[in-house]
Amino acid sequence: MQDRAYAVFEEQQKNRGIDLEHVKSKLKSIEVETPSWGYGDSGTRFKVFKQEGVPRDPFEKFEDAAQVHKLTGICPSVAIHIPWDKVDDYDKLKRHAASLGVRIGAVNPNLFQEDDYIFGSVTNSNPAVRRKATDHLLECVQIARTVGSDALSLWFADGTNYPGQADIRKRKAWMQEALTEMYQAMDPAMRMLIEYKFFEPAFYHTDLADWGMAFNLANKLGPQAQVLVDTGHHPQGTNVEHIVAYLLDEEKLGGFHFNSRKYADDDLIVGSANPYELFLIFYQILEAAADTNAGVRRTADHIAYMIDQSHAIEPKIPAMLRSVLNVQTQYAKALLVNFDEVREAQARQDVLGAEDAVRSAYEIDVTPLLVALREEQGLPADPMKAYLQSGYGESILPRGKGGASW
Amino acid sequence: MQDRAYAVFEEQQKNRGIDLEHVKSKLKSIEVETPSWGYGDSGTRFKVFKQEGVPRDPFEKFEDAAQVHKLTGICPSVAIHIPWDKVDDYDKLKRHAASLGVRIGAVNPNLFQEDDYIFGSVTNSNPAVRRKATDHLLECVQIARTVGSDALSLWFADGTNYPGQADIRKRKAWMQEALTEMYQAMDPAMRMLIEYKFFEPAFYHTDLADWGMAFNLANKLGPQAQVLVDTGHHPQGTNVEHIVAYLLDEEKLGGFHFNSRKYADDDLIVGSANPYELFLIFYQILEAAADTNAGVRRTADHIAYMIDQSHAIEPKIPAMLRSVLNVQTQYAKALLVNFDEVREAQARQDVLGAEDAVRSAYEIDVTPLLVALREEQGLPADPMKAYLQSGYGESILPRGKGGASW
Amino acid sequence: MQDRAYAVFEEQQKNRGIDLEHVKSKLKSIEVETPSWGYGDSGTRFKVFKQEGVPRDPFEKFEDAAQVHKLTGICPSVAIHIPWDKVDDYDKLKRHAASLGVRIGAVNPNLFQEDDYIFGSVTNSNPAVRRKATDHLLECVQIARTVGSDALSLWFADGTNYPGQADIRKRKAWMQEALTEMYQAMDPAMRMLIEYKFFEPAFYHTDLADWGMAFNLANKLGPQAQVLVDTGHHPQGTNVEHIVAYLLDEEKLGGFHFNSRKYADDDLIVGSANPYELFLIFYQILEAAADTNAGVRRTADHIAYMIDQSHAIEPKIPAMLRSVLNVQTQYAKALLVNFDEVREAQARQDVLGAEDAVRSAYEIDVTPLLVALREEQGLPADPMKAYLQSGYGESILPRGKGGASW
Amino acid sequence: MQDRAYAVFEEQQKNRGIDLEHVKSKLKSIEVETPSWGYGDSGTRFKVFKQEGVPRDPFEKFEDAAQVHKLTGICPSVAIHIPWDKVDDYDKLKRHAASLGVRIGAVNPNLFQEDDYIFGSVTNSNPAVRRKATDHLLECVQIARTVGSDALSLWFADGTNYPGQADIRKRKAWMQEALTEMYQAMDPAMRMLIEYKFFEPAFYHTDLADWGMAFNLANKLGPQAQVLVDTGHHPQGTNVEHIVAYLLDEEKLGGFHFNSRKYADDDLIVGSANPYELFLIFYQILEAAADTNAGVRRTADHIAYMIDQSHAIEPKIPAMLRSVLNVQTQYAKALLVNFDEVREAQARQDVLGAEDAVRSAYEIDVTPLLVALREEQGLPADPMKAYLQSGYGESILPRGKGGASW
To answer: Domain Xylose isomerase-like TIM barrel, which positions (chains A, B, C, D) (predicted)?
Structure first.
């Protein structure tokens, strides 16, 4: 059945002018980082539902993450959050990861869970708090160095709840001050990925509220600073793929936190609310990856794809698998866009033709392709089914409830 | 100074054709209920900042609430949340309240903080969970009876996170089933106030998502069921005062949960984000209170005004005071609308004249009026200042951190 | 190629437990009405770009609409707008339609383009204007009778731009009064479809602002009044398929105005912004069509599917074709949902399983199915390609610019 | 009466530590530009209601605008739109303006009303169209030179309606190319004010979609390029005053297009939907105007305040007056903020104290102040009343209907 399905698929793509070997090669090289915290309990302000089997420490988180990589083949790295993943011996954690076939990915400082940060961390008007927060950033640079990570992923909860509560422009200066100090402490090979978010937990203003603020800051800091786009961090009615294209063109797109939302920062399974948006993001990336400008191409080729989701009600590992598979699916579809066809339609200002050239790739079922790819790589044809049949989910139940949460 | 300010104010209002005795009488009779949970710790999914002095039990919550009433004179009742305010001896709580000069207000069931409710409470596909949830509703009716409360205020977190997760229409039927059972258990003098909310904590669909669903359900249940409008529970670009006017006209507006938001359900201090909206809500209410239809008038006169806010970073009692004072301020402004002037402008389709007649009341500074009113009632002219000078805030610090939270 | 593709498709669906004969039969019976005004010029407040070949009168509009039906086989009726499609001899128009293989569909009154309606039509405080507006509604009932249409599709631009501008509740009463008169004039077989919209052209309040207001009004009027859902008429963050399911359950969903939007009421090609939403709407409809309640089933089976879009920059007929094809595609996908699988997953509260059962149908490429279906029906395999090759687009160019617009 | 009211006001402000002479001096020096097109007919895509007495040419527009200045004393300049205000003899228009006591303000190119621009103007993939559009920009520079204007105010409707329709990044380059050419043609004293807007008339992507894109472009162009903030051009849930503060800090805020909105770009009377937002914008500006950084201060002092509204249903001149008065009112309130008090509360991280220090200024009724100011300046105490009694509105009725519109 799969053979026949793939044969039909292959012929269709050949007729569409698609080079399937190229597509497969791209699909084999994409890496999607999963976050250690995505394996722990999470929820809403109303309730965190504790699940059985949730990892109790960073080592167990890596074990779960390794399952996702083992089944999909595209998740070799795991982002860590400090102090959630603080351990005495990072070398041990690094070796543990390696023994599981994965590695430590981006290091994420945490500046929102201590009482001192009630009015901000690096933008707090209290210099002692700013010092403490900046020291934590420096500590994370050191941890990145220790664990061999080249990415520092920064999200700040800093902001205010009421008009007048604080001096917005002073806070802007303090943010720049702290990140400049951090930037200078980074090794040349390290990247600082600056995230932005328009609200939550701050409800009046957030210091880094949108891509423009993150971008301007990254520009001031230097080439090692780039913008991190979290797909759930924009007001309704924002064209996210436009921002992606814009940042690529400025060679300042550093990475993604993928998740999905219908309302606010819902942090749901990637691609579950509006899968077309994810496809259109990849379409912009692939478009830039073929640019005549080498800097743009290089930027497109070095994007850190990371998942950042918060499963409130669904089991953790399968939910992460689902996200990874959805990313892979939409990426595969975007690879099937015939860019020549798009460009020709654009050149003749054929609105419907150009739209059709993009959308029709989205409408293709890429299952035969992905199954073929997995078979070539010795991966299970259906990673979700393989997981459910593996017994792993049951094997971790003895961990009990009360695992790590945030 | 106040004397001269009030003299000027009085003359201005006389010139505008406003009957200040009527205004004062309305201001004396409005009651704004504060919620017991508003005195405890709260926060966002990222962090609950624990504050010193937060009440450790329902009795202490009533003590704090009594301060707000003592200083403002308009907050004689306190809403309770079950099981947060569950006590062995409700009579004792009732007497405690009375001794403090306040009473127990609306009873709020809680159906979102038990593990059983991960997939819903009264709309859970598991009949045992539905039974448990409905039993809790019935328990709350009994508690209302015990404490002499005539209002049951219902908010359901029930909903789903993903398309297909559950049968939306079956859940609709189960909601109706549970509330029918509860309705039948209520005493004739009791009111069921049905709240709605478009998202959070559910991120795909919420069973009671908007006023239309709450309204239709209240219609099916009967005259004792009405709609509760939480001012933060609407999508951006919703005209809340229109909904208020509509529900008044249908004699189905039961009450409010007042709070303020710029983004989602931010639950900030009432009137802090867009005070004009609060004024316009009161304008619609006063307009309905003068209707020729007795049912509409009665509805407008029996609205349960309740505050429902969640202070993440500011001290609890002053934040509650600020909300109450903001409600009072906007209500006072709305009372200064010259309705004849509005109606005459409307009758001649004078858009700018009608708008001006409403807005110009909003622009009046009602401080002299409120100070005069407070002096007449033996209340402090500036309740916030009086609170800060009272020493009460310091006196409760020995409660320590670690008080009640949700 | 198509043969092999269909063979694979057929086997896949068989394996998934899908009855393809049933699917095809449903696909053959769906009807999608196109609007006469969709063939004319339209645009934004900034500019209407006049296109060559646009129909100059209702007769030419029907000719264009007939092309769409000829190529797709599912668009046998055409909605008309009065007075845009006013003709001296409706019988002639009816015969013209019949001669083209189509018929006249819903009759749409127009109450927003005369100077008299600057402050509202049926909700205008001026009784003479209300009378005039109501008379137009009655005229449209008569036209429907004349042309043999059984649907009156009502959209009101009525609303206000400023707080205080008008008495919201009086306008509510006037709306009910006018529609009651219209309702009473309708023949028993006629349906009144009541549309709602939250803003534009009114920017403060719109008299029929949301589904709840349209629904309540339809309830008061009687069984022949139902709600019309325009997919672009909701605030951001509204779950449209939830509203669809709700109205189906209440047996009050009458029809759709399909179009697509990313921002406000953008009126773009159906399914071009978020095709998944359209699929999920059909999923809810098919779910209701299999309900145990006969009234719900009947409602689901009698939905009037209508397109209402406004092409500003793209050629009219191909844009309409694209919309129709996108509707057909998403409907076909929804027909491939294995409802038993969904229900079983729901029954065991398997969130990921249930979500997967729905989403996986969406991911299927239905091209082989639709091509097979078209071949069975003697329709072109690719209607868009057939249109472009037909020469029809060129043949109408002599109409010149300056055709009908709104 | 006014004397006593002002005496009370004066004493209150003295007690609050406000220097009223400073306040008055600031109020005397603010200038609010009105737009020529604001005096003509306008509307929505559904209908432009033609009003009697609307100006028939640029000369009459200036006559109407002069009324607004005569009555308020703060509107000495009038923005023009090319080609709407194209005249053969600009010197004559300039002299006409001078004879009326006003002058020509910002020059606004129009690149959205010609058929050539259906797929964009300066970002059109057709080089001939880009050339034409750029030539129009250069023409406007020349007109600015001719009429002695130092501001070119740029808004582009350019964007796309569908994914794939055009190459987003190429269009970005073309935008920069055209504006570079224009920038180089400007005189040293001229400013280019770059506006942004997230949607409408483009519904998929807009080339200059947000402040970040306008800001980045202005940065690339040079010091004479700055950002223009239109208060209605942001997604819901955007903190506009934060953007204002940010741009001030970067010395890149050039000006405003003031108007008011509840939904999308409603273009209503300034301050009619959420007056508090306007106040908070002025609060940020005044805060920056007192900065230690001279560049920030200078930026704050050179903001071009311009009104850009589109009255669909209300009479033009009174609507413009209302907007100007609302701007003046909110500016006056912001001048009453005691900045020392705010800063002290901020310094001790007193959230409620800081919020109160800002909000309490907003709650002050500034009528006595504005009346006193007007009396000092020989202006009518109530400009709106003075206008209505002036007979001007009646005097222009003979112009008839059918005046200028856009």
So the answer is: 88-266
